[in-house]
Structures are given as structure tokens and as C-alpha cells.
Amino acid sequence: MQPPIETDILAVGAGAAGLIAAIALARTGHRVALVGRKPPPLPGRTVALFEGSLQLLEQFDLRAMLDPATSPISAPVRAMRIIDDTGSPFRAATGYFEAEEIGLDAFGLNVPNDDIVQALARVAENIDNLETLEAFVADYAFGDDGVVATLDDGRRVRCRLIVAGDGRNSLARRTAGIEATEWSYPQTAITLILRHRRAHHDTTTEYHTRSGPFTFVPMPPLPDAPYRSSLVWLVGPGEAKRLLALPREKLGERIADQAHHRFGACEIEGDIGAFPMGGMRTKAVSAPRLMLVGEACHVFPPLAAQGLNLGIRDSVDAARALEGVDISDARALSQAIQSFEDSRRADIDLRTQAVDLLNRSLISGLPPVDFLRGFGMSAVSAIGPLRRAVLREGVSPHLSRFLGPLMKLAPVARR
Ligand SMILES: Cc1cc2nc3c(=O)[nH]c(=O)nc-3n(C[C@H](O)[C@H](O)[C@H](O)COP(=O)(O)OP(=O)(O)OC[C@H]3O[C@@H](n4cnc5c(N)ncnc54)[C@H](O)[C@@H]3O)c2cc1C
Hints:
Layout: E1 5-6, E2 9-12, H1 16-27, E3 32-35, E4 46-50, H2 51-58, E5 75-77, E6 79-84, E7 95-98, E8 108-112, H3 113-125, E9 130-133, E10 137-142, E11 147-151, E12 156-159, E13 161-164, H4 171-176, E14 180-196, E15 203-209, E16 212-219, E17 228-235, H5 237-245, H6 248-258, E18 266-282, E19 286-287, E20 290-292, E21 298-299, H7 307-322, H8 330-364, H9 367-382, H10 384-395, H11 399-409
Parallel strand pairs: 1-12, 2-3, 2-13, 3-9, 6-15, 13-20
Antiparallel strand pairs: 4-8, 5-8, 6-7, 10-11, 11-12, 14-17, 14-18, 15-16, 16-17, 18-21, 19-20
Helix pairs in contact: 1-3, 1-7, 2-7, 7-8, 8-11, 9-10
The structure holds flavin-adenine dinucleotide (FAD).
């Protein structure tokens, strides 16, 4: 048998969260190996990354590759429009929010998932103290003084710590026995890229409908297509089937209708994606010699563009907790893992609950719930200081730091 590959930290998963964790850990000086294979394409999927996340990426030299001035992959989001299209008698007033209100040029950037993963993988390949292993982990043996991961090609890796960004079915999480609660929503997200006749003015337009959000997010122009957006459309599974069976031209017309012709005629570009919606939260984000990042420890529907923004904070907090730590010292390592656990809990719980609540309030159809949602959204739009506080919290979270101790006392109800 071949001797195992030796490293200090094994980052698992070549999706965005695993790659960012591996790069951030290597750039803080640790010897890291990253195991994973290039993920299959995610048709029509983009991620809106907020300014707070971009600032975190900047600390690890990962922002410039997304800058629209030099890179054609991203588009700025300078304003957000939220339209209550539920037809409820308690409809919220339309909200229109500009990044300028909170002193920013843009709330963030919209980037295709596949492009960000590809750009991160290129960076990872060129870092000396980061070795990339093209394989999957097939098995973990967690021990008192280290972990041995067996790869699906038979190689073994011995390390002190696993940082797992191995997605919602995380083998690392299951092997370490971290409990997870999962649930599903009666929704499928249809995702695609559109060319449209009228300008988006760098504005995200989110219609709240009875089946969930229907959201246009700006995409960069092409020489023959000045106005492009990505679309995320949450509909019931039956409706998703019907829509996906339509000829592309008809689906484009159906989308233009659903958007009340705000963007004019719509033409679909490239492949169309369909993703069943679900949620997941875990009892912890760590175990001895293990930290979880990204969807390995939280999953929720794409409302308010929170998923990967949260995943970036997981990955960066993992690197920060381990910065300057001698991970061969078991006590120092376990303290760093505890500090990671403490730093992540409230942020994850707050986002998971807020997104779940908003999503359920849209699809419930109950008048009192409509009333509360309509009232809350209208208040956020109308009351200046509240409006700016909510915008700041969305773009660069602070609230969870205050709520941390309270949320520890009142854990989220289990479903
Ligand atoms: C429709 C939609 C729209 C969204 N929009 C936004 C948005 O605007 N903004 C935002 O912030 N978020 C958004 N999200 C969420 C975001 O896309 C996800 O949070 C993010 O892509 C998850 O990345 P990840 O790296 O955690 O997981 P994944 O992308 O699932 O990556 C996990 C990786 O681990 C690999 N892996 C699994 N098991 C193993 C193993 N044993 N060994 C090695 N590798 C393994 C997998 O192959 C995969 O490549 C959206 C989600 C959806 C569904």
C-alpha cells in the first residue's frame, strides 16, 4: 500500500465554498490539500455576492478576478426593486432601494456559478502550499491525533483537520455524526439567462408571487445583447414541469408576461436549470478535527441571495479562526474549532430562519400572514433608518454578532 499523502488541512469539495476555504487557509500560511472534482455545470445559475462578501474575498486577493472593469463575468447590482405580486388585499408597497443610500456604488456583483468556480479553481492551482487532488473522499477515519481520508482512487491523505465544503449531503458531516434537520418546500427553482429588449438599469427586480420569488438579476452585456439578466423563478413542481415542456420561444413569452412586460420581449440564452427547493440546518458546524462550510451546514431557498454569501463567511471565519494557530498542538486546534463554532452559529441561524419565514409567508396564502408580511415590507420601505439598517444588514451582516448570545438561549424550533 502507498504511504498516505501528508498535509496539515484537507479541504474537501471543489465548489465555491470549499475552494474559498482552501485558498484562504493556504494564504494564511497553512499547508493545505484540496480534494474534489470540477463540478458539473449549473445551467442558468448565478450568485449575487454582496459588498460585505466582496470585501472578505479582497482580503485573500480574490476580488479583482470578479471586478466588472477588468473581467467580463460579473455585473454590478446598484439598486433593488421588490414588487408584491401576490394579489393579496394586504399587498406591500413596492420597495425600491439604491446602494447610494448606504454610501455604496453597488450592493454587489452578480456572477455565474460556473464562472466563479472556474476562476477560483485557477487561483487554487497556482498557490504553492495548496495541493489539489482530483478525486472524491470515499471514507474518513477520525482519530485523536489526526484524520485519514481515503479517496475514491485508493489514495489516502493524513491530516490534522478536515474543512468540509462537500455540499448538502456532506459525507464528512455524516461520518462525524453531526445531526442535520432537513425539510422541503413545494417549489422548484427554474433558472436561466435572458436577453431582453428593455434595460435593467443595474437593478435587481424581485416579484413576490404566490409560488415564491420571480427575480431578474443584471448580467453583463454582450456585443449583440446589451440587456441581459439571470432569472430565478420559484413555482410549484407541477407548474415547473409545464413551463419546462414549453418551446423556448413560448417560455420567453410566458416570462415577459409574468414580468408585466417591464423588460419587453425576452429571449432565453443557453440551458435551463430546475432545482427542487429544500432547507437544511445542522446542530453544529464543527466536531473534533472538523469544520463545515457552505451548504455542508446550511441550505435554504434563493430569497434575498443569502446562500453563498453565508458560505463565504463560513470559509473566511474558518481561516481566521486558524490564523497563526499551530495545528499540530491539539489543544490550540480544538480552541480554534470552538471559536469557529461560536462565530458561525448565530449568523447561520438568523439567515436560515429569516429566509424560511419570508418564503413560507409568500406561499401560505393566509390573510393574517399576508397582512404581517405586507406591513413589515411597507415599514421597511417607508421608514428611513429602518430601511438603511435592513440594507446594511443584508449587504454586510452585523446583527448576528449581537443576537449570538440570545440565539444560544433560544435555539431554532425543529421541524
Ligand atoms: C436557484 C438558486 C439561486 C441562488 N442564488 C444565490 C445568490 O444569488 N447568492 C448567493 O449567495 N447564493 C445563492 N444561491 C446559493 C448558492 O448557489 C449556494 O449556496 C452555493 O452554490 C453552494 O456552494 P457550496 O460550495 O457550499 O456547495 P456545492 O456547490 O454543492 O459544492 C459542494 C462540492 O463538494 C463536492 N463533493 C461532495 N462530496 C464530496 C466528496 N466526498 N469528496 C470531494 N468532493 C465532494 C461536490 O461534488 C461539489 O462540487 C442560490 C441557490 C440556488 C438554488
